[in-house]
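Forum: Protein Structure Q&A
Topic: Joint prediction for protein chains with partners

I've read a bunch of threads here and the consensus seems to be that you should model interacting components together rather than docking separate models afterwards. I'd like to see that in practice. Below is the full input, 229 residues plus whatever partners are listed. Could one of the regulars post the assembled result?
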Amino acid sequence: EIVLTQSPGTLSLSPGERATLSCRASESINGDYLAWYQHKPGQAPRLLIYDASSRATGIPDRFSGSGSGTDFIFTVSRLEPEDVAVYYCQQYGNSPRTFGQGTNLEIK
Amino acid sequence: EVQLLESGGGLVQPGGSLRLSCAASGFTFSSYTMGWVRQAPGKGLEWVSVITATGTVTAYAGSVKGRFTVSRDNSKNTLSLQMNSPRAEDTAVYYCVKSGGDTHYSPFDHWGQGALVTVSS
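Posted by a regular:
Agreed with the consensus. Here's the joint model:
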């Protein structure tokens, strides 16, 4: 199965700063079928990005994704206090679908 | 508005059985692949199972294969997960998820609030 490794494990930034999260796959992801999810405590996870770079419905344009093959990047261009969450990447191009271990985004 | 409402969670003994259900509304249930994702305490998200729109194709994570069975009733807009012989490591919040289409190549675009399953004697 494809192993997704996310870095950093924890990211602590100030409001207005730019957050850059990485997701590296153990092998190339078919079709670049990679998604990013936001998971806040006590809430259901929310789809932010799919197919590596497409924003899901209603997601602000300060959230973006890029990459292909084995290396993918998720960016929040201007952090807001409500962006505190754990962010997961997930690949759905190969079976079984797998998730990364998550990046904990903290706001100073 | 898409709504996914899980039920059936609770305490189950190791080796027992438990059935989770997910009531779906706000979309054409019979047109979408559905599935289950879980999160153990203090851990990340883990994909568990998916089932295609017609129910003809299912897939499972290796950790649950042979013990869990996913099914759906399109006449009742309901997804189920039958958990047999659960183990302590199956303790988790189980999320019902909807795919963006009826294909393997779709992300999970809607999630339920989750149901807690605790496996303990």
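Chain A has a mean pLDDT of 96.
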